[in-house]
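COMPLEX REQUEST
Ligand: pyridoxal-5'-phosphate
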Amino acid sequence: MMTHSSQQWPEWLPIRSDLSLLTPYGAPQLESKAQLNTNENPFPPSAALVEAIGRKAREVGESLNRYPDRDAVELRKLLATFMSERGKSDFSSENIWAANGSNEVIQSIFLAFGGSGALGFVPSYSMHPLIAQVTSTDWVSASRENDFSINASKACEEIRASKSNLIFITTPNNPTGTSVPISDLERIAQAAAEIGALLIIDEAYAEFSQEDSATTLIEKYPHVVVVRTMSKAFAFAGARVGYLVAHPKVVDAMKIVRLPYHLSAMTQAIAMVALQHRAELLLSVDSLITSRNKMADELGKLGLPVLPSSANFLLFEVNSPSLVWKSLLDEGVLIRDVGLSGYLRVTIGNEAENALFISALKKSLGGQK
Ligand SMILES: Cc1ncc(COP(=O)(O)O)c(C=O)c1O
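STATUS: Structure written out below.
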């Protein structure tokens, strides 16, 4: 074995020192009867959509010798139409960037704008600080109130005192499910403008919320960037499609940092098929909201306090989260221990999965007495 000085491989693996202690991110991918741990949509695509995707895949297959459209223009046009339909704004493809999941969009934001650091309000989506670290961006964790809300006045003060280029707000927030009113987002946008920072609003779960989307702020506040995904409400997590809505100058910066041909021809094509079926795909949103409210009531009846959720999951209080997590898994129910002391997070599944979760939970709580 080759050595570097006197060390044996892999001790001298030249990984960056700031990464050497990190472990790969990711929820356990375990076999289970009810997979309620990654906030996916439980409803698979309809037979008609699977058929349409298959036809499109065959068509695209015939030209896979060619690179895809580097700028995914047709997909971005369709995403702009979708966002314009939902909001009160009129977006074009110039306002949209798309990539392999919103995680890649977020990574590109860090690559382009990380510079003097990023600030976010924790607990929130743990990939934000992790991507900051991987892209060598300093991360500042600002705190939330005891009920996990963001106090807008305090947040504005913290932003004004910071030197960050990027301010992150996730709303509805993961893992808490709570949302930030649009009026507070506007105040926070003003504070971010004062220090010359972009305000990144991660709206991965926006379709499940009654709040207006922060896209309605972009016209007045061109430094507001809204990150969205097709992984949740669209039930398209496996295809890996995320996007942002922003001023065209932000989109121009994405083109500088993206890898050439980052979004495969297959991904672009099937995402467009899914968007053409958007009415059907988004039908699941209302039924998931109904199930979420029902599950919150059931948890309440079991004496477990639940945070108000505007997303497709619930964060609830429980004694001994890791014991409960394990006993649920023994019953075939996989939920998420997000590492918040005294809490567990459960994704809303289909009716059978939700029922299995509640009965396994009753059993687990009974066993603890
Ligand atoms: C708040 C938030 N943002 C972004 C993502 C990433 O989603 P994707 O990369 O599938 O678009 C997630 C995934 O769970 C999330 O919870």
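REMARKS: Residues 27-44+282-368 form a domain with the Aspartate Aminotransferase, domain 1 fold (CATH 3.90.1150.10). The chain has a mean pLDDT of 95.
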